[in-house]
Design brief:
single chain, 92 residues, mainly alpha, 6 helices
């Protein structure tokens, strides 16, 4: 399962809940390993986010309800997507 929707809106919602800065200081390989060992948690988090269908206020509300591990992983995924997007954009 993948995150769907507006990447900027996702970033803004994650920033609103204070998830971006702490994630930059984490060991991403450890967080990724932990989430890959618990795929149902990840799937549930992605479903919850995708279910917001672009409603930033609802997304912020849902992010506040999630456990910190899931929020951290989602923030990492959004950061990765932004990096990949920037790489593709600069190649063209």
């Amino acid at each position: 399962m993948f995150l769907q929707g507006d990447l900027q809106m996702m970033f803004d919602a994650l920033f609103t809940v204070g998830a971006i800065d702490p994630v930059l200081k984490l060991d991403w390989s450890e967080v990724t390993k932990e989430m890959m060992a618990n795929p149902q948690i990840l799937s549930d988090a992605f479903q919850m986010i995708n279910g917001c269908k672009g409603n930033k206020d609802l997304l912020v509300q849902k992010l506040h309800m999630m456990d910190q591990r899931s929020v951290n992983y989602i923030a990492m995924e959004v950061a990765r997507e932004f990096c990949e997007f920037q790489d593709r954009k600069e190649l063209h």
